[in-house]
Amino acid sequence: MKDVISEILKNNQLSVTENRLKILELFQKNGKALSHGDIEKMSGKHFDRVTIYRTLQTFVDKGIIHTIPTADNSIMYALCKDTCSEGHHHDDHVHFLCEECGTTYCLDNVTIPQVTIPKGFSVHQTNVLVNGICKNCR
Predict the structure, then answer these.
(1) Residues placed in the known binding site for Fe cation
(2) Cβ of 51: how many Cβ atoms within 10 Å?
(3) Which of 8, 67, 89, 119 is deepest in the core (most CB within 10 A)?
(4) Which PANTHER family does the entry link to (predicted)?
(5) Nearest-10 Cα torsion for 7, 124, 104, 33
(6) Distance between CA atoms of 56 and 109, rounded to whole angstroms?
(7) Taking the model in full, what pTM does it have?
């Protein structure tokens, strides 16, 4: 797995550091959205909060992960699809938040419906967050 993660970093012109490897590995292993706090808890060692924030922001900027806004104005992060690149996210899918376990899932096969906005408005991003009970909690 470390070889795959190293390749992702190299392909995005990023240095392969222990912090970047570990954080990206957490996303790969979990397969779900993670918060800054989740990464702190799961890292197994102490990462400086600022280092985690900067690493996450770098990954967002490079198109490796994308942000998911939540109802409480916090931010979750999830791996991007292969079609994302630096400055060009293509994550037009629905996110699902389980009200039971708190897990946020990317529903890659569910596309965001077309939204018509009034003339004069400019859309940069559309987010759809669906709340309910996931299949694991049913």
Answers:
(1) 89, 91
(2) 14
(3) 8
(4) HYDROGEN PEROXIDE SENSITIVE REPRESSOR, ZINC UPTAKE REGULATION PROTEIN
(5) 20
(6) 25
(7) 0.76
Query: Which residues are known binding-site members?
Result: 89, 91, 98, 101, 134, 137
Burial class (CB in 10 A: 0-12, 13-18, 19+), 36: middle
Residues near 56 by beta carbon (within 8 Å), at least 6 away in sequence: 23, 36, 39, 65, 77
Mean predicted confidence (pLDDT) in 40-61 = 86
Least Cα distance to 108 among 76, 78, 70, 72 occurs for 78
List the binding residues for Zn(2+): 98, 101, 134, 137
Please give the single-letter amino acid code of residue 68.
Answer: I
Q: Does domain 2-132 have CATH number 1.10.10.10?
A: yes
Predicted confidence band of residue 54 (pLDDT cuts 50, 70, 90) = very high
> Which amino acid is located at 49 in the chain?
R
DSSP codes joined into one string, 43-71: TSSPPPHHHHHHHHHHHHHHTSEEEEE-T
Amino acid at the residue 99: E
Asked if 88 and 71 touch (Cβ cutoff 8 Å), the reply is no
